[in-house]
Specification:
This protein is 0% helix and 52% strand. The protein contains no helices and 11 strands.
Length: 127
Amino acid sequence: QLQLVESGGGLVQAGDSLRLSCTTSGRAFTLYHMGWFRQTPEKGREFVAGVNRAGDTSNYADSAKGRFTISRVNAKNTLYLEMNSLKPEDTAVYYCAANLGIFSPAIPTNASDYSAWGQGTQVTVSS
């Protein structure tokens, strides 16, 4: 099983940027498609962005398009989420997640398709 640990969250002002990291261990990182999700009490857990095993294909929620960039460095077993132009509505706990991608090239957007999760990192954006 892949272990995941997020870092990089914090308290920022609207318009600021943050970069989240997700370091992994335990199994071959390159076997997994990776995703970022976020969770609030009001909206529950929602998909933010995903990247395929090779790191050359990604997809985004509409709320993240144009502001967030997902990337991975397979040599470092690490996933990133660069977040720019942050808004108060981006406030949430952010989770990285892994989907064993050896059966399909598609990047899942449903949380139920991800089998491994980190503990989450809090991002708070003040207005």
